[in-house]
TrEMBL record:
Database matches in InterPro entries: GNAT_C (IPR041644), NAT_N (IPR041273)
Domain GNAT-like C-terminal intervals: 111-249
Presence of keyword RNA-binding: no
Record-given protein name: Acyltransferase
MF GO annotations: acyltransferase activity
Keywords: Acyltransferase, Transferase
Domain N-acyltransferase N-terminal: 2-109
Domain of life: Bacteria
Length: 251
């Protein structure tokens, strides 16, 4: 367990908390069986009700060697597997995963981190597409994004040759065109946004933006230290909303 926690980058102090509170063995066996059933599918049935404690983390770590073997069988380089799985290490607080459902994609073998961006294999109306996600662990600089986007098509062609990915989609608050009212044109966020052809406004994103940018619960007092923080707070204070927007790009 310790070795796996180390490998995904769970901090030492967190590891001790995790080891001190193992989940119920029967629940763990059931959760592991669900995750094993989901491996290789594009959909996850395993769910984590609030208050699942350390169960999701134990379950994910238990299946991790099997998922890595599944990656290896497809020739996925070990560095890509580790870069992908290290997001788990960054999301452990007080021994539990913050938003554990997010990792379903990592552990069913659909999501891979290639440099700055993550790509999740999925389908839309029967077309194989890559769903882009942006981990919040550093600036979103353009060159890093170029490199990730350039790597995506050859990576999936090599390791998942049965599926041909010609387009990528992204659904994010980062694609909300209202950000242009606040951020400079040369900001990383707007430069990223301009790569996509926007299609639809999907849903209101106020609570998600507060979680992603401030790591605070909805309704909390928002600090205004950066341009983005001021933008988000001012916009909401005016009674306006942020939205998740879907955009497309060719690969
Ligand atoms: C996406 C992300 C990496 C962009 O960061 P970036 O490269 O610094 O973005 P920009 O260069 O466009 O930043 C423009 C301004 O916003 C600020 N900013 C950007 N992201 C910020 C964040 N998460 N928290 C606080 N301020 C932020 C920058 O500091 C800058 O303001 P400044 O000029 O006053 O310093 C960052 O917002 C992030 O980590 N977000 C969380 C992950 C996320 O939301 N993913 C998408 C999920 S749908």
């Amino acid at each position: 367990m310790r070795e796996l926690m180390q490998w995904v980058g769970i901090p030492e102090a967190e590891q001790a908390v995790v080891l001190a509170s193992p989940p119920d063995e029967q629940q763990l066996a059931a959760a592991v069986a669900e995750l094993r059933r989901d491996l290789g599918t594009l959909d996850s049935r395993a769910g984590w009700p609030p208050g699942s404690g350390t169960l999701p983390l134990y379950a994910y770590l238990t299946v991790l060697p099997g998922v890595l073997a599944w990656h290896a069988a497809r020739g996925v380089p070990r560095e890509v597997s580790q870069a992908t799985m290290r997001q788990l290490g960054s999301r452990v607080r007080d021994g539990e995963i913050v938003r554990p459902y997010w990792f379903a994609r990592h552990f069913r073998g659909s999501l891979y981190r290639l440099g700055r961006l993550q790509f999740d294999r999925t389908t839309r109306h029967g077309e194989p597409i890559l769903d882009i996600h942006i981990p919040g662990d550093g600036p979103l600089n353009s060159e890093a994004c170029d490199n990730s986007l350039t790597a995506a098509r050859p990576f999936f062609a090599k390791h998942f040759p049965a599926e041909e990915y010609k387009r990528a989609v992204c659904t994010s608050w980062l694609l909300d065109p209202q950000l242009a009212d606040y951020l400079p044109e040369d900001s990383n966020i707007l430069r990223f946004q301009h790569r996509f052809t926007p299609e639809t406004v999907v849903s209101q994103a106020d609570d998600d933006v507060i979680t992603f940018v401030f790591d605070l619960p909805p309704g909390a007092d928002l600090p205004r230290r950066t341009r983005l923080q001021r933008a988000i707070a001012d916009h909401l204070a005016q009674g306006k909303h942020w939205h998740h927007v879907t955009g497309w790009l060719p690969l």
